[in-house]
Write a structure and sequence with these properties.
TIM Barrel, alpha/beta, Immunoglobulin-like, 35 strands, globular
């Protein structure tokens, strides 16, 4: 009996191995478009969380440069002992948006100095030029400013001087110098020399090597990572900061445009939101404002997707509401934003855009009203926005919130209401474990093809790994890759999709996982970044059905597939996910009257260890492998690696 059992077990094992080696056949109907997809489908979502703006993509190195934080001296310390009254924080209410400044009274000419710590230190690179600048007025004759960059051991690694001209009105001064060392956590000393008085403000330090070499611009490496994705859109400025903890701290776009020295700083709502990661020095200076957002979108070829407050504060915090009879101001903000983006230079807001350096319109096409708001109070306010926007700007598509979750009572209510309202685009969010993404690939198969489009505005797969950079694992990324095949397969319904959050600073994060991690000197993409990039750089114009025994390849045997055709580049693009620990042999049988070139580009993102993540030490631990392959006739016969995402691009004649 024992010998028979062993023989049967051996036979079963042999048949299993044989089955595993038998290719699986998928049918690709290249000539049968299942619908159109937007070439702008894959985008990015930006929110000033995790020090994404100040201390991140906005390249300013001085923290609290205008002394407007709740504690005016936060980020600064005095280097010398001075008589009482030498340093005075003044508050001039006539100065729009920036009332505070530092007045220095030094009749005896004693040595005075202050030091700024930067945003968790200052990232300084050897050989690069830096520009120190400030505003000043009423400087006594002969007064000078001497600045020093310091490394972690307080050694001077760069210095410069400038003489302050006398005058009663505010004027600017600047000097440039080269850094002698690379340091991750540098500091800035500012020495005030000479006897007399002076009033200073906007004490600033920027690298000269910014994105597109714009003066006082954006951090080059961070924008480049976005540009490399070729995103179809950028959604900004959030996120929960749009709502604010209360309405007083909501994001108000009009306060983020115009001269930078007049923009009104506010506390960042992520300052104290998470008790385990307090950041009392986290503010929004709006050096990165709506103009800069629009400009960045234009730079990288992405559509701008701004989101505005709908008259509701965050419902998890104060849940403040603007009464309906006071909502006009909020609606007017939306109308004025459209004018700022698209209006002629003869209009009020179009002129401001032109004065800031961009006479041509930004060609805004869509606008979000509210972020993760819910309930009848949201529907009521959204309806008021929709009525006015449809009457005055029918060309602008309206994006509306479906709440915080992809299911449940709130979602069901909003989904029904927004569809009855005939809203243009419904914004759905899902932060869920990998199992949810794997099991939800067919989520949009049965959505109404004639109803509103869907914006997967915020999504990320959350593993049980501890918070921090290591939470951005290959397991999370591969589950997202599988889910995205479902979005692409239903791209006639899902018009847009973006991962969230975008950036995380290793010394200043509040939320994980994140798409891109940075420190003061470097930036790298996570496994999820590599997945998003493969999708966004391999988009198409038409959905091409991929079937397995007549059904979509949507999770059976942990296999997932989608396919698109790009009518512009004349290419068939197949995406395939093998979520198994073993390789799998697959035949893609292409049904088409068109001729296919035999040479194809095959890109594989794979790793047998689902728990791995990238890091500053190993930023390319998981990266795409690109190879040219030859396929015979109209059959793609190949073996796909364990735990892999593969993109095959084939020219069509």
């Amino acid at each position: 009996m024992k010998k028979i059992e062993l023989l049967l077990a051996a036979m079963m094992a042999g048949s299993t191995a044989l089955f595993a080696q038998t290719p699986i056949s998928f049918k690709v109907d290249l000539d049968q478009s299942a619908g159109k997809m937007s070439r702008d489908m894959w985008g990015v979502f930006f929110e000033d969380i995790n020090m994404g703006a100040d201390g991140g993509i906005y390249a300013e190195l001085v923290k609290n440069r205008s002394f407007e934080f709740n504690e005016p001296w936060m980020g600064w310390k005095k280097l010398t002992k001075e008589p009482e009254g030498t340093f005075l924080i003044t508050n001039n209410s006539k100065r729009k948006g920036n009332p505070r400044s530092l007045k220095i009274h030094n009749p005896k000419g004693v040595q005075l100095g202050v030091q700024n710590e930067g945003f968790r230190g200052m990232g300084i690179k050897k050989g690069e030029q830096y520009e120190f600048s400030l505003l000043f007025k009423e400087a006594s004759s002969g007064m000078r400013i001497r600045v020093e960059l310091l490394n972690e051991e307080d050694k001077v690694i760069g210095s410069s001087e400038l003489t302050l001209a006398s005058g009663s009105d505010w004027q600017s001064g600047a000097s440039k110098f080269t850094a002698l060392e690379t340091v991750a956590k540098g500091k800035l000393n500012v020495w005030i020399e000479g006897a007399g008085d002076v009033e200073v403000d906007m004490i600033s330090l920027f690298p000269m090597d910014t994105w597109k070499n714009r003066s006082k611009g954006l951090r080059k490496d961070m924008v480049q990572l976005l540009a490399d994705m070729k995103p179809g859109f950028i959604r900004f400025p959030g996120g929960c900061i749009v709502e604010g903890r209360d309405l007083a701290s909501r994001f108000q776009w009009k306060k983020t445009v115009g001269p930078i020295e007049e923009r009104e700083l506010i506390i960042n709502r992520w300052n104290t939101e998470f008790k385990h990661r307090p950041a009392p020095d986290y503010f929004q200076t709006f050096g990165l404002g709506f103009y800069e957002y629009f400009l960045m979108a234009e730079d990288i070829g992405a559509k701008a997707v701004p989101i505005l407050n709908c008259g509701m504060a965050c419902q998890f915090n104060t849940a403040e509401l603007v009464p309906m009879d006071e909502l006009d101001t909020y609606v007017q903000d939306a109308l004025d934003l459209i004018e700022f983006a698209n209006g002629a230079v003869t209009t009020t807001w179009g002129k401001l855009r032109s004065d800031m350096g961009h006479p041509a319109p930004f060609n805004l096409e869509m606008l979000g009203v509210g972020n993760e708001n819910w309930g009848p109070q949201y529907v009521e306010r959204l309806a008021a926005f929709k009525k006015v926007l449809n009457e005055k700007h029918p060309e602008i598509a309206i994006i509306a919130s479906s709440g915080t979750d992809p299911d449940g009572e709130r979602f069901a209510y909003l989904d029904e209401q927004l569809r009855e309202m005939k809203i243009d685009i419904i914004d759905e969010h899902y932060y869920r474990p990998p199992s949810w993404f794997l099991s939800s690939v067919s989520r949009y198969d049965d959505y109404d093809r004639n109803g509103p489009k869907v914006f997967a505005g915020e999504y990320a797969s959350h593993t049980t790994r501890p918070n921090g950079p290591g939470r951005s694992t290959w397991e999370a990324a591969l589950s997202e890759a599988a889910f995205l095949t479902g979005l692409e397969r239903n791209a006639d319904v899902v018009q847009m999709a973006s991962y969230a959050p975008l950036f995380g600073h290793v010394d200043g994060w509040q939320w994980t996982p994140d798409l891109i991690w940075v420190d003061n000197l470097n930036a790298y993409g996570t496994p999820s970044y590599q997945v998003q990039k493969l999708y966004s750089t391999n988009t198409g114009t038409d959905i091409v059905p991929v079937k397995w025994n007549g059904a979509a390849v949507a999770g059976k045997d942990s296999l997932f597939a989608s396919s698109v055709y790009d009518s512009i580049t004349k290419e068939l693009i197949i995406k395939f996910v093998n979520y198994n620990s073993k390789p799998v042999q697959v035949n893609f049988d292409i049904n088409s009257k068109k001729k296919l070139k035999q040479n194809a580009m095959k890109t594989t993102l794979a790793n047998g260890d689902l728990s791995i993540s990238t890091s500053f030490e190993e930023p390319l631990k998981i990266q795409p492998k690109v190879e040219q392959v030859n396929y015979k006739g109209k059959k793609i016969a190949d073996t796909f690696a364990p735990y892999s995402l593969t993109v095959i691009k084939l020219a069509v004649q």
